[in-house]
Amino acid sequence: MAIEVYTPTARRRVDRLDAIWTERPGLLGWLTTVNHKRIGLLFFFTSLAFFAAGGVEALLIRTQLAGPGLGVVSPSVFNQLFTVHGVTMIFLFVIPMGIGAFGNYLLPLMIGARDLAFPRLNMLSYWFFLASGCFIYAGLLMGDGPDQGWFSYVPLADREFSPGLGVDFYALGLIFNSMSTTATATNLIVTTFKARAPGMSLNRMPLFCYAQLAVSFVLVFALPALTVDLVFLELDRRLGFQFFEPANGGSTLLWQHLFWIFGHPEVYAIILPAMGIATSIIPAFAQRKMIAFPLVALAELLVGFIGFGVWAHHMFAVGMPTVTAIFFAGATLMVVIPSTIQIFAWTTTVAMGTPVFATPLLFIGGFIALFVTGGLSGIMFAAIPFDQAVTDTYFVVAHFHFIIFGAAVFPLLGGMYFWFPKVTGRMYNEPLGKASFWLAFLGTWLTFFPMHIVGLLGMTRRVYTYQPGLGWDAYNLAETIGSYLLAAGLVLIAVNLCLSLVRGPIAGPNPWHAPTLDWATPSPPPEFNFPVIPRVRSAYPMWDADDRLDDRRRLEDGELLFDAGHQMPATTVRDADLDEILKLPTESASPLLVALPVTLVFVMLLTSHYIGAGLCGALALVALAGWHSREPQAA
Amino acid sequence: MLRPESPQEDRISTLFWIMFGGCLVGLGVVAAFLLLGWLRRHRPGLPGGGGDNAGSGIVIVLGVAVPIVVLSALFWYSDLHALNATAAPAAGSGQLQVEVTGHQWFWEVRYPGTEAVTANEIHIPAGVGVELIAKTADVIHSFWVPRLARKIDMIPGHPNRIELYARDPGIYRGRCSEFCGLQHANMQLLVVAESQQQFQRWLADMGAPAAEPAGAHANRGRGLFLENACAGCHTIRGTAATGTLGPDLTHLGSRLTLGAGTLRNTTGDLAAWVLDPHQAKPGNRMPRLSLPKSDFNDLIAYLETLR
Amino acid sequence: MTRRLEALQWFGLFGGALAWTAQLVLGFGLAQGACSTGGSRLGIGTAVPQLALTAGAALITVLAGVAALAVAVATREGSHDGPPPIGRRRFLALGAVAANVLFLAIILNTGLLAAYQFPCRQS
Amino acid sequence: MTSFEAAGARPRSLPNGWWGMLVFVAGEATLFGCLIGSYFYVRLQSVHWPQGGIEPKGVLVPIVLVAALASTSIFMQLASAAGVREHAGAAVAALLVALVVQSGYFAFEVHDFRADLAAFSPHDNGYASIYYTLLGADHAHVALGLLLNAWVLLRLLGGLTRYRLNALRAVTLYWHAVNVITLVVTATILSPSA
User: Does position A346 have pLDDT exceeding 60, yes or no?
Assistant: First the structure.
């Protein structure tokens, strides 16, 4: 949709920006793009494909467990399925969807920027993500997938007990994947710091951006622990190091500590984008500003921060000294508080607003119900004796699926409906949307709630079968039925969005009367997002009608236009004062040229061709030099 | 866990029900807020909308103040009071010790100070606190008998302890609860709590070497056991079989299950197990044995005598 | 005055967080050390270092909370949505007050109970 | 001022590249935090340290080497400051000095590392494994810094642009971080066994 202009001057200006920013069409355009919206869509569809794969794995798992003693898949395949299911959903779906797709596409729009701070790095991150995902899946497709569980405890993951390549696919794949994630997180942090529209001081930054900022920080500080751990594992497995060998002065618990120092913050990284989406959808549909805005903003950061101090609650059954366990139990209880702040801010805003329960808000309502349920069962793990009783049972499986499926994915689904008109320019079908919500919501309860009960009855995690007569059969059958209902709900969402893409009514720039700047652009947004960089005077810039009229005037006058090439203003970190004018790079093949040899490095490492890996690494450096020889120039 | 049989598990169960009650209240409050929003849908202009700062008080009270108090209370109750009541016994404090070692995928059970060795079945006297020492021979396993005690991981190079106590005689199921590889699902065990006399008799039986097989078939069966691969992995005390990869079979016939809870220990199931261990427990470490039918029958006859 | 307010605001925001981080890392490290083979000879296996650590961390957190409160009071004329730097200071100070209360709760809960749970035994 | 394109004028605050590097080195610092944490974790489990009768490292040589490396922070900062003032020549000179000292340090350390390898192997025990991994990770960061410096130097010889200045400032930050990390790593390795 074209930008509304009222005078020939404005028309000329917009046309000029169009000419400067429009990228190559066709496949080549997609391979060399550096535009955050295109890259966001690439992340979206790729992570969606991995979601589908992870979903099929989940259905196979549930089918195998529908009744006692079934033989749908072999134990070996079952173990690969649940391992890859976990890895897929965490590393290849929720995180890339949350920051790679939603963050990438929406964050610059929300802060009034034209792109991320490092557009080429953004594309490199996508290639790394795609390649690492394919790398991990190659193992599964070759029948040698990881089968040691997603947290891959040693010594089970050592070469002695997992001699195949499965663990190596996992370890190298995740190191590769975390390079992608770190790159995106870094990009988002610098973008939120330096690319906010003039006037958008820290107190006026949308809560969605606070959430994205928190996720990015969490990932930057959590992933190194995983990387270190995986490097230790690979050194032990391949070169005979002794990190995890207690007989030789190593420690098996070292793996667990490092893994969970990463693993628990990662859980918050999974939920935070969802919180961000909730805080975008609620004010739009309640038509009311968020209650306790400063508390919610800080709560989003605090969730990420305190999340670093709770890791050992995953290890209460290892027999650590009581006194050390205390630290983590206490933090585990208090990390609840930032979430209670947000829950009551959301629900009070809904209750005190004039809410319209359209599909996106329904998904958020569902999210709150699931999040509270999963959160309350999560609180129980801080009670050490209870944790020691139920850890590694289906009670835990129930808890974390309520959180990382129910709470983390429902807002992503609601967000898909919410921003569908923005991205495509068309409205989705509301009755179908509501139906899909109820199907998915009830499916989620039916799938995951009975897991609490079988867990309390003694059903442990990661069993490929169980015996009849333990009182678990009916619950398991219900869970399996629920999982198919849930899948049907998800398919219905896909059907709705696909049909609406063709047949939906035209949406207009801001069909929800939503308050953030993403709705200031036409739907879909032009490649440069904003013809003039908006000025911001509150956290709800779209509800400041005067300012938006002023944008129109400034387009006439050419104020804050930045049309001398790929330009974008940089602003100061704290108070978003205009600082300098950046020249952003244009489309480039360099990210692809760097990603190819880096992918080969990991393939070579996997196949133990260490010299080859070195050579490919050198090739990657040459490609990087090529990248940096091409400096962004003024057009 | 919901039907506790020990004081420790009573505590854990009580703790659960207290927290469960709290959860219902919490969920109820949030649901009430959402319901209120639902009732107010599409009705602009209702009183209660408030200004920009309205409602902050609710967030501060319900979101910060109340949870801090409630959660701190839970912390001190659960991690001081309940924790100390379910704490691990100090080393050597129990009058009876049992040492359980996890293997892929069975449990080796020893009673320190006696000769008794068995597998996948722990006998304890009811009403007596037993100090259980948890070890592993390979990967990490976790020992868990839901009705009797919390679980304890078996970590290489790091022996752990818990107290095992059963109030009443009975048979209690347990299972490995840390993923330990292909047959994690079929790594179960039974705790048999019995009267003190029964237990002492059992313990003495377990300590004794295997009885001489009676009858020609069984005797031939023993020969076959020792000649074939069996003896390389299994121990039968009182014979030349001293393998340690598989469970001790000295008193196999007295056990309730085969394959760590995979099958019941009946003649038919035993024969089926030896004929093809991978039928019921695919991928376990025991190889398939190809013997002529008569030899096979003799072998089973011998194993049946190991009581 | 503004420079002092600016400094108070950032101290208020980060003070409690840093104090808790220090308490967790050092407290966990000390406890781990006291209860392990290699570390039990270091003579840290008592409640005293834990209590000292807790007291120090709690003090910093209280100060940070007071700083945040002072900023909130000093900016009470403004709105947290208002123009920077006043609006931003108020905004961050309001959040920081709650955050410091939270950190204080964590520090006191864990520190006191950890001190009480000495000497070492397996959980 | 011909070296900067007119659009940007002089940078008033730190460039995006510097901020990006800050986030990156924060991540790398965490990585070393985990390595050092692992070092002490393994150490606390162990009755003897170093394990297996390995001789503890001498103190003097590493301290001198690290001091030399730390001094390059000054030259990096000088280069960066000269760049901001658009003195391309001074920037190149300071960068060259830093590069020479850093290369010397690296050569010494590689030699030392090989000597260690001749004395004991990373397969020996937990101590040896973490020792080589920790030092190796540090040396790898120094090596990367050398490549970065060489590259920036090469580009600066072709003249100073905004893009190259940003690179210089970012690499300067990188070296500050690597120098601090090297100090901490060395202190960890040399920390007396109780």
Answer: yes
Q: What are the CA-CA distances from residue A249 to residues B154, D46, D49 (Å)?
A: 18, 7, 10
3-state secondary structure of B68: helix
pLDDT digits 0-9 by tens, C46-98:
788 899 999 999 999 999 999 999 999 999 998 888 898 999 999 999 999 99
Q: What is the pLDDT of residue D3?
A: 34
The pLDDT, as a whole number, for residue C42 is 67
| Among B residues 238-267, those touching chain A with beta carbons less than 8 Å apart | 261
Q: Touching B: which chains, 3+ CB pairs < 8 A?
A: A, C
For B96-207, give the CATH class: mainly beta
Architecture of domain D15-42+57-191: Up-down Bundle (1.20)
Q: Do C24 and A329 contact (CB within 8 A), yes or no?
A: no
Q: Which residues of A touch B88 (CB under 8 A)?
A: 319
Instruction: Extract the tokens encoding D65.
Output: 């080497």
Only one residue has tokens 């090529």, namely A626
Q: What is the pLDDT of residue A464?
A: 96
Interface touch A204/C17, C-beta < 8 Å: no
Report pTM.
0.95
Give domain limits for chain D.
Answer: 15-42+57-191
Chain B nearest-CA residue for A290: B52
Do the Cβ atoms of B214 and B207 come closer than 8 Å?
Answer: no
**Average pLDDT over every residue of A52-63:** 97
The SS3 assignment for A452 reads helix
On the question of pLDDT at A1 being above 90, the answer is no
Instruction: Check CB contact under 8 Å for A583 and D5.
Output: yes
The domain segmentation of chain B, as residue ranges, is 7-83, 96-207, 216-303
Q: What does the alpha-carbon distance between residue A375 and residue A372 come to, in Å, rounded to a whole number?
A: 5
Structure tokens at A220: 């930057």
Q: What is the pLDDT of residue D144?
A: 96
Chain A interface, mutation test: which of C21, C23, C91, most A Cβ atoms within 10 Å?
C91
Taking CA–CA distances from D44, the nearest residue in chain C reads C38
CA-based diameter of chain D, in Å?
65
CATH superfamily to which B216-303 belongs: Cupredoxins -  blue copper proteins (2.60.40.420)
Nearest to D46 among C29, C32, C37 (CB): C37
Confidence band for A277, pLDDT divided at 50, 70 and 90: very high
B-facing residues of A in 344-373 (CB < 8 A) are 344-345, 347-357, 365, 368-369, 372-373
Residues 6+ apart with CB under 8 A from D168: D79, D80, D83, D91, D95, D152, D156
> Is residue B48 over pLDDT 70?
no
- In which band, very low, low, confident or very high, does the pLDDT at B212 lie, cut at 50, 70 and 90? confident
- Helix (H), strand (E) at residue D30: helix D16-44
Q: Is the pLDDT of residue B94 over 90?
A: no
Instruction: Summarize the confidence of residues B152-171 as an average pLDDT.
Output: 94
